Structure formats: structure tokens, C-alpha cells
Automatic annotation (TrEMBL), chain A:
This is Golgin A7 family member B. The keyword Membrane applies. Transmembrane segments: none annotated. It comes from Poecilia latipinna. It comes from the Eukaryota.
Length: 157, 381
């Protein structure tokens, strides 16, 4: 995917260390929402506020996509009247928002995450179950991060 | 790394696990057994054809031409809803990739602590609080995920489906989040169509009998008897089913939850997904947003046919999706973990790759998580 190419352009010597998964937050029901709890493995990789902001913005996008209101009723009734054939040629509101999300994630990767050796994967590619963050490490560096991420993994539990 | 590798582009649906069949290059997704679906199609098309051939000419002339016109529209709508229900992705949740599965395993083991040998580990359950109600999320051993609320694993299709309602052999597919409204509209409009044809059959027979006599009428339009028989039996089941699903929608419950009694009996009135308002519930289910499929059946991916064993190095990193597909047969994901990730995962947890084996072998028969009442086939893990 294009995200990988961006990262590879910027960090030719990067190698994948681990992946961190931000889980879904079901406290408000089945609506799509990710936990804003900061994963301990990323403690020394990125500022908490930045990641929180990213997750909160993503959550707001999903709220917009899944909103049950005037526009979704209109879309639903219109589609029903045409036996849903209109969906074959029209893009639904959810799909439009998903495109916005994918653009947002790409922008965040380029501006914030790739420079810190991280990569966000669009949740739609993981079945909307998790927000996957790949952690990369430069092969040429002293390699202190993998061990510190290991210890932070074990102490976090 | 192997020097000889044959790569070809395949569509992702070709490598999806689960027991679905795909048609039209991934555009159509159905269950494996489609026999009863063909029967449904045959009954609907056959009965309507008989109606158009035998009754409609008479009724159009003697009553109104609007009758066959409306019948055609209703028939087309029914077929459209049936095909939409049958051919669309019900809301299948893709299986966890190896890294995600490992991550979850590690969390589970950390939460369980040290289990003395000889004792069975506790069942894998996660509690979440939704609207002041504790909901238990079960772990799916096949898909290696904690099922989201209201999701369930269908053993016939071998997939976890979001907002799983039931597996319907008549439409040859599961009914879940994405196609429930089409299923409901199908049952509703089919009931209407059945009532319509039944009623106008009676009208036609009565009107014709007045002129020609009852027995002559039956001789002139032999299809009538067949139609009345089919409609009579279909009517009761379809109207009943539509009524049942209307009831479920007004309470925002799924058939699965209803059968299991999740929100009835002593739990009555505690459904955390219900808005406690019939209209709001109906609107959410029928007029809610149309969820896109998360399966990406028609995406392209590289398939490497390696000439040597150690071939999953550089190519697999470019196409992480390729890893998903190779984990279909073995339950242990680490066999196909890319070489880049293996050292790091092994480093994080010294016995990581091997731990998958004992849990998978020990837990399934004891925890038996997939005891979903709606499936008639016993699942063996």
C-alpha cells in the first residue's frame, strides 16, 4: 500500500520491531470507537497528546459516519424506494467518510508517525477491530528501544 | 532467500478462510450449500410466472390493468431483496493476523497469571460495560479474536459475523449487520406478494366461476390450484416470520439473542442496545447507515509460489496481507510469521511461538465457546 512506500522512502534501513494494537472501546455500544488509553509500549516513541488526538479525531469521524439522523434516513428511504439499486452507482455516506479517514491516516503517518518510526494502519484493513501501530527501529541505531519496549511490555501487565 | 519465485496477482477473495463460495470474481458471496436458495428462487419465480400467465390476462381485462403491473413491481422488489440478502457480505469479521492473535494471547496469559499444571485455564472472556450493563465478550478460537458485542461465529460458514442474526438456508447466506434490513424487507414484501397472489387467485376463481362454472374454471387455468397451494403454505410461515422479526426490530434484538434468552426472562428490559423506544429502534435497524464490507474481496494481492522453503522474507513484508491467507489451515499462526517479525516476537517472549500449541489443544473442548444455539451443526474445535 502507499503507506508502506512512504515509510520505505523515508526510512530505508527500518526494520519492524513490534506491533501495538489499540483495541475497540465498546463502552458506548457497538458504535465504532477506539480506546484512548495510551499503550505503554509507545512511551518513549511518541507524545501521549499526539496519539490521543489522532484517536479522538478518528473516533469523531466514525461517529459522523454512523450517525443515525436526517441524512441517513433520507439515504435509506431513497435507496429502499429504488430497491437499493441506487447503491450500485452511488457512494454511501459511510464510504465517503472512510475515504476521508484513509486520507487523514495517511497525512498523520507522513507528518507525525513516520518521522518517529511508527506507522498507523487504517482500521478498515483490520476489520475495524484494532488500530494497528507498527513500531520500526533503524538497524543502524544502538538498538536500545527493543529491549526497553520488552521491559515496558512486561511491567505494564 | 530463494531466487526462484513465481508471483501472480490474485484477488483476496480466493485466499479468504471460511466456507463461503464466491462468484463474479468476488462480487457475490454466499454460503456453501445453495440448494435451498435455488428452491426459494424456483418457488417465487415459478408461482409468479403461473400468476402472470393464467390469472393476469383475465384480471387485467375484467378488473384493472393495474393489478398485473403492481404484481410485477412487487415481484421485482422481492427478487431484488432476495438477491441482495443472498449475495452480500453479512458483516463477516476477518480473522486476526498472526501479530494481532499473538498480542491477544499475551494479554490473556498476563491476565490469567500462573495456572497450576493439571488445572484448566479459565475461559477466555472479556467483560465490557455497555450502558450500565455488563456484557461478556467471548474469545473465538477459530478467528482468534474476542468477538465484538452481538457478533457470533457461524459454524456453517465458519466466520464470525457482526450482529449475527441467524444463518438462513432459504437465502443461502448468514443474516447479519449488513444484510439484515434486506432480509427483513424480503420477508415483508414476500408476505405481501403471497397475500396478493392468493387474494387475486380467489377473486379470479370466483369471478370466472360465476360465468363458466367452478370446474371449468379450474380446467381453463390449471395453474391456479398450484398457486393457491404454494401461497397457502408460504403465507403462514412468511407472515409469521415477518411478525417475529418486526417484534425483534422493535426491541433491537437479534434472533440469536432471542434464542439464547440474553435479554428475556430475568434479564428482561436490560438490553443495552435498545433505545427503549420502538420507533427509534426501528429507525436504527432499517434506516441506519449502510455499513461497508471490511472484507475487501476484490483487492489484489501477490501470491508467492516459492520454489524453496525459506522464501517468505522480503516479499512478505511488502504485502502483509499475504500472511493472513496462509494461516487458513494451521491454527498456529507463527508458522507463517514473516522472518522480520519472528526474532522480535520471540525476543519479547521466550516461549511465544510454542505457547500457541497447548492453549489451542487444551482449551476448546473445555471452554467450548461456540455453543451458539442457532446452528444445528455441532462445532468441534
Amino acid at each position: 500500500s502507499s503507506k508502506f512506500h512512504n515509510l520505505q522512502d523515508m526510512q530505508h534501513t527500518a526494520s519492524l520491531v513490534t506491533k501495538v494494537f489499540i483495541q475497540r472501546d465498546y463502552s458506548e455500544g457497538t458504535v465504532c470507537r477506539f480506546q484512548t488509553k495510551f499503550p505503554a509500549e509507545l512511551d518513549n516513541r511518541i507524545e501521549r497528546a499526539l496519539l490521543e488526538q489522532t484517536v479522538k479525531t478518528l473516533n469523531s469521524y466514525y461517529v459522523e459516519a454512523e450517525k443515525v439522523g436526517g441524512q441517513s434516513y433520507l439515504e435509506g428511504c431513497l435507496a429502499c424506494a429504488t430497491a437499493y439499486i441506487v447503491f450500485l452507482c452511488m457512494e454511501t455516506r459511510y464510504e465517503k467518510v472512510l475515504k476521508k479517514i484513509s486520507g487523514y491516516i495517511q497525512e498523520q503517518n507522513e507528518k507525525i508517525y513516520a518521522p518517529r518510526g511508527l506507522l498507523l494502519t487504517d482500521p478498515i484493513e483490520r476489520g475495524m477491530r484494532v488500530l494497528e501501530i507498527s513500531v520500526f527501529e533503524d538497524r543502524g541505531s544502538s538498538g536500545s528501544s527493543p529491549s526497553s519496549s520488552m521491559s515496558s511490555c512486561s511491567t505494564a501487565r | 532467500m530463494s531466487a526462484v519465485m513465481i508471483t501472480r496477482k490474485v484477488r483476496k477473495w480466493e485466499k479468504l478462510p471460511g466456507k463461503n463460495t464466491f462468484c463474479c470474481d468476488g462480487r457475490v458471496m454466499m454460503a456453501r450449500q445453495k440448494g435451498i436458495f435455488y428452491l426459494t428462487l424456483f418457488l417465487i419465480i415459478g408461482t409468479c410466472s403461473l400468476f402472470f400467465v393464467f390469472e393476469c390476462p383475465y384480471l387485467a381485462v375484467h378488473l384493472s390493468p393495474a393489478i398485473p403491473v403492481f404484481a410485477v413491481l412487487l415481484f421485482l422488489f422481492v427478487i431484488a431483496m432476495l438477491l441482495r440478502t443472498s449475495f452480500s457480505d453479512p458483516g463477516v469479521l476477518p480473522r486476526a493476523l498472526p501479530e494481532e492473535a499473538n498480542f491477544i494471547e499475551m494479554e490473556i496469559e498476563a491476565a490469567n497469571g500462573n495456572v497450576p499444571s493439571g488445572q484448566r485455564p479459565p475461559p477466555r472472556i472479556r467483560n465490557v460495560q455497555i450502558n450500565n450493563q455488563i456484557v461478556k465478550l467471548k474469545y473465538c478460537y477459530t478467528c482468534k479474536i474476542f468477538r465484538p458485542p452481538r457478533a457470533s461465529h457461524c459454524s456453517i460458514c465458519d466466520n464470525c459475523v457482526d450482529r449475527f442474526d441467524h444463518h438462513c438456508p432459504w437465502v443461502g447466506n448468514c443474516v447479519g449487520k449488513r444484510n439484515y434490513r434486506y432480509f427483513y424487507l424480503f420477508t415483508l414484501t414476500l408476505s405481501l406478494l403471497t397475500i396478493y397472489i392468493f387474494a387475486f387467485n380467489i377473486v379470479h376463481v370466483v369471478m370466472r366461476s360465476v360465468d363458466h362454472g367452478f370446474l371449468n374454471t379450474l380446467k381453463e387455468t390449471p395453474g391456479t390450484v398450484l398457486e393457491v397451494l404454494v401461497c397457502f403454505f408460504t403465507l403462514w410461515s412468511m407472515v409469521g416470520l415477518t411478525g417475529f422479526h418486526t417484534y425483534l426490530i422493535s426491541l433491537n434484538q437479534t434472533t440469536n439473542e432471542d434464542i439464547k434468552g440474553s435479554w428475556s426472562g430475568k434479564n428482561r428490559g436490560q438490553n443495552p442496545y435498545s433505545h427503549k423506544n420502538i420507533i427509534k429502534n426501528c429507525c436504527e435497524v432499517l434506516c441506519g447507515p449502510t455499513y461497508p464490507s471490511v472484507l475487501d474481496r476484490r483487492g489484489l494481492m501477490q501470491e508467492d509460489s516459492p520454489a524453496a522453503a525459506n522464501s517468505e522474507g522480503p516479499c512478505s513484508f511488502d504485502n502483509p496481507v499475504a500472511q493472513t491467507t496462509k494461516t487458513t489451515a494451521p491454527l498456529i499462526p507463527n508458522e507463517h510469521t514473516p522472518d522480520d517479525v519472528k526474532p522480535s516476537i520471540a525476543a519479547e517472549k521466550s516461549s511465544g511461538p510454542k505457547d500457541d500449541q497447548p492453549p489451542a489443544a487444551m482449551l476448546p473442548p473445555l471452554a467450548s465457546p461456540e455453543t451458539d444455539a442457532e446452528t444445528s451443526i455441532a462445532k468441534n474445535q
